[in-house]
Amino acid sequence: MPPTEEQKRERIVKRVARELRDGYYVNLGIGIPTLVANYVPKGMEVILQSENGMLGVGPYPLESEVDPDLINAGKETISEIPGCSYFSSADSFAMIRGGHIDLTVLGALQVDEKGTLANWAVPGKMLKGMGGAMDLVAGAKRVFIAMEHATKDGKPKILKKCTLPLTGVEVVDHIVTELAVIDVTPQGLVLRELAPDATLEQVQSLTEPKLIVPPSGPSTMMS
Questions:
Q1: In degrees, to the nearest 5, what angle opens at C-alpha 200 toward C-alphas 189 and 153?
Q2: Helix (H) / strand (E) containing 185
Q3: Which of 1, 2, 146, 168 lies at a C-alpha separation of 20 to 30 Å from 11?
Q4: Three-state DSSP class for 40?
Q5: Could you report the per-residue pLDDT of 96-110, keeping only the tens digit for each?
Q6: E-strand spans in 44-179?
Q7: Among 51, 113, 148, 178, which one carries the catalytic annotation?
Q8: Element (H, E) at 202
């Protein structure tokens, strides 16, 4: 049985969560990335920042715990951890632009082989704005993309060159999908890990640029 949409998302965010480290300040983008908050390893202190002015975002609340005043940048209800603080949007973006975010996790419409990102606009569709993504890709120390590997109709989202309006040029460090973990390097896209139920041929067929396979082959993607 192929994985469900929910299982795909869970696999992606669990794998991204393995990149978190004690003391990291992390910003999670709208969509799949926000789910990473539910999988912060036990006993690890990671401070999640939301660009609408919150430091210390907790996991999604249970229905009985929802506080309508606590929302993230995507207007979803969230919880807070002890020591959580609130501040203006200007202070929030000063943190991002000042290089104080260790890692950001963003969704994507397209990523190309140079690590250029398009994630905010589809021509002809309603624009909600780019949010904080343009600042995050410029200011965060590491940029992870968390997305499904292909579009709903099976077309590649990892391209030789992005065709949609750009968020940032050559800004992405790593791409995590339900099929693979891919590193963006000066030599090209390196297939670092392969999901247990995926094949190299399958991943390459859904990826426009030629993937570089390490000499020892990709390791197995662990969630």
A1: 85
A2: strand 180-185
A3: 168
A4: coil
A5: 999 999 999 999 999
A6: 47-50, 54-57, 80-86, 103-106, 110-112, 117-118, 143-146, 158-159, 174-176
A7: 51
A8: helix 200-205
